[in-house]
Amino acid sequence: SGSWAAGVYVRDGNRWKAAFHGEAPIVDPAALPAKPVAENAANQEHLTKPIARDVHTDALLSLEKAVWEAWKDHDAKKIDGLTAMNMQFINIFGIHLATKVEALKNWSGEGCDVKAVGLSEATATMLSPTVGILTFHASADGTCFGQKIGPVWGSSVYVKDGDAWKWTFGINVPALREGV
Asked: Which string of DSSP letters, residue by residue, matches 10-77?
């Protein structure tokens, strides 16, 4: 079945250095078991931990929450305003959305029915004054393609567009292991 992988590199003098790496297994959402992901106290504990507070985390987390809310509401116009012109996304099924057009169609489509979303344990890592990565845990009360959405590990890259931060890349991976 394979996986999609993503990397972010930063320039240090005349060398490129790895700053981020993530992978998402490719799965067929229709082939997943119809029962919900097993949830236990250890899996859910991270959803109640406080979120780290700093100016960069606060700014990017606010935008990330807005992106998730717009996805929940299938609001393509709002998503369009929150995202950069060039963007990509790898979702919890390992589906790669290579363009903004693909992402807007997917996120505003009818594949997911979500009533509420939540983000916790967010931390921003600034790679430059115009590029930052937000890592976080997410939850969504609902289903995608008939499957209950379990806890998610998320990473989103933001770029500065004038005075505004814009979402440009994300990868969400199911947090399915014990103790995650």
From this structure: EEETTEEEEEEEEEEE---GGGS-SSPPP--HHHHHGGGSPPP--HHHHHHHHHHHHHHHHHHTT-HH
Residues in contact with 62: Cβ distance below 8 Å, sequence separation at least 6, in sequence order: none
126 contact partners, CB below 8 Å, separation of at least 6: 56, 132
Using only C-alpha atoms, the chain has a radius of gyration, in whole angstroms, of: 16
Pair 127, 19: CB distance under 8 Å: yes
Q: Is the pTM here over 0.90, yes or no?
A: no
Return mean pLDDT, the chain: 84
pLDDT tens digit sequence for 2-54: 878 888 888 888 988 888 888 877 777 766 554 444 444 444 444 445 555 68
Angle subtended at Cα 70 by Cα 64 and Cα 75, rounded to the nearest 5 degrees: 150
Tokens of 115: 């009533």
Give tens-digit pLDDT for 143-172. 998 888 989 999 999 999 999 999 999 999
- Give the HSE-up count for residue 159: Cα atoms under 13 Å, Cβ half-sphere: 11
Contacts of 174 (CB under 8 A, 6+ apart): 37, 92, 150, 151, 152, 153
